[in-house]
Prior knowledge:
By secondary structure, chain A is mainly beta. Helices cover 0% and strands 57% of the residues of chain A. Chain B is globular, with a radius of gyration of 13 Å. Helix content of chain B is 0%, strand content 45%. Classes of the chains: A mainly beta, B mainly beta.
Amino acid sequence: GQNIDQPTEMTATEGAIVQINCTYQTSGFNGLFWYQQHAGEAPTFLSYNVLDGLEEKGRFSSFLSRSKGYSYLLLKELQMKDSASYLCAVRESNYQLIWGAGTKLIIKP
Amino acid sequence: IAGITQAPTSQILAAGRRMTLRCTQDMRHNAMYWYRQDLGLGLRLIHYSNTAGTTGKGEVPDGYSVSRANTDDFPLTLASAVPSQTSVYFCASSDRTSGANVLTFGAGSRLTVL
């Protein structure tokens, strides 16, 4: 069946690096997305991977391995404003998006 | 500022009442979506519309209806609200002609059904 797993909550220190993992089992694959959602706000787009490898965008990078059904979001030089939930979503062959429950990231000074 | 506007921001509703959540976008996106977000669960698709004049059912459509009379507006109606429909509702839009088809979300409507 369809399933996306990501940790419920993670804690990291300001200035450090954190890696948020996402594993998936879906009906086909047509891209993987990461969104950021601050508490009480809308999700906002961070990254999109459709081919294997690392996509870097400033302090954020996203990695994809289609053969392993695995992705991670890497956040460097953490800032307090990075405290948010990070949502992993996979687009299936029928173009429907399947969403993970999100990882709440807590940044401590 | 281009984006999606949702209304109301928050609403408390008695069970059995009819409610319409409004959604308007000004980005001329062809596709629009309604999701609900509940604690501990991923976003779940209620209904979607790939283009004006067409709609489709998502993962959890029961108890909800939508219409897409034009490109900009995509209202969601609860015909007779029930407590299990208490949730945060997000409207989103995307340009399906783009490769990534990235979703842009509205700020959400928090609905409580008593």
